[in-house]
């Protein structure tokens, strides 16, 4: 048996993806905290290990695709920043790394990681926190964020989504992923009408609620889980054969409104590899 694993499949965008895959006749292995095939807490090492073991058993060691949609929101709570980073970052990268051999076994698998536009529109996210997450040092990152006070969960959320996107982009182009036929990409939504967003908004202070309402969304409103699921279906399809290490932002235009001049930009000369300099010289000589 092969099939598709979807984390966070009990609700929200993960549920919408699982529904569309099943409607298309694709076997789905759902992973979440309840009401799914594999019940596991991706915020703990034991939960991630148990999830990987169960998915590999269910799939027979072969997966056509993986959708890593599980995540938690930046609401107040004891040790919440650490929990956010454990689930959103390690719950994605460690589980996906454990499933990589099963994805490679099919020779043409697809993997979609859920990022967020929070990674690029949240101000003041310390780079050293993102670096700590990339190194798997969640406790170190959490200790740093204790100084951030009430906004620590928001920074932890943005940092976790930034780190997971950077990890995916770095991994996607390697022989172990691209070379094994796996197309790994990131979908970065803005606010989407899900229970996660509802929970987050319920905990907002009046000032924070006003700030949320003022967030520029040029097309208006919030996203629909079904629309995001359609993007995932495309990224899992044969049409994504040439899509590798991309971050697809689907946020109603928020990031474009805030950062229109940030991309595209050329690679700084000090970071240009030798082969690209030679190509540039060749192109000028023609």
TrEMBL record:
InterPro entries: NAD(P)-bd_dom_sf, SDR_fam. It comes from the Bacteria. SUPFAM superfamilies: NAD(P)-binding Rossmann-fold domains. Pfam families: adh_short_C2 (PF13561). The keyword Flavoprotein does not apply. Keywords: Oxidoreductase. Belongs to the short-chain dehydrogenases/reductases (SDR) family. PANTHER family: BENZIL REDUCTASE, CHAIN DEHYDROGENASE, PUTATIVE (AFU_ORTHOLOGUE AFUA_4G08710)-RELATED. This is SDR family oxidoreductase. It comes from Pseudonocardia alaniniphila.
């Amino acid at each position: 048996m092969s099939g598709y694993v979807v984390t966070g499949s009990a609700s929200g965008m993960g549920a919408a993806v699982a529904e569309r895959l099943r409607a298309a006749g694709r076997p789905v292995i759902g992973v979440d905290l309840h009401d799914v095939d594999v019940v596991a807490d991706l915020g703990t090492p034991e939960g991630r290990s148990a999830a990987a073991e169960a998915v590999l058993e269910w799939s027979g060691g072969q997966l056509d695709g993986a959708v890593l949609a599980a995540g938690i929101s930046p609401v107040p709570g004891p040790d919440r920043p650490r929990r956010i980073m454990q689930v959103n970052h390690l719950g994605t990268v460690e589980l996906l790394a454990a499933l990589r051999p099963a994805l490679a076994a099919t020779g043409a698998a697809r993997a979609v990681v859920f990022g967020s536009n929070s990674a690029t529109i949240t101000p003041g996210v310390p780079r050293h926190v993102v670096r700590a997450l990339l190194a798997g040092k969640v406790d170190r990152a959490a200790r740093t964020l204790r100084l951030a006070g009430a906004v620590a969960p928001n920074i932890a959320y943005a940092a976790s989504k930034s780190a997971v996107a950077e990890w995916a982009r770095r991994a996607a182009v390697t022989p172990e992923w691209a070379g094994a036929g796996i197309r790994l990409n990131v979908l970065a939504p803005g606010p989407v009408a899900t229970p996660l967003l509802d929970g987050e908004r319920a905990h907002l202070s009046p000032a924070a609620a006003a700030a949320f309402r003022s967030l520029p969304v040029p097309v208006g409103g919030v996203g629909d889980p079904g629309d995001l699921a359609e993007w995932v279906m495309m990224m899992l399809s044969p049409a994504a054969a040439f899509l590798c290490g991309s971050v697809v932002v689907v946020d109603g235009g928020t990031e474009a409104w805030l950062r229109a001049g940030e991309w595209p930009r050329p690679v700084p000369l000090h970071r240009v590899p030798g082969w690209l300099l030679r190509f540039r010289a060749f192109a000028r000589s023609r």
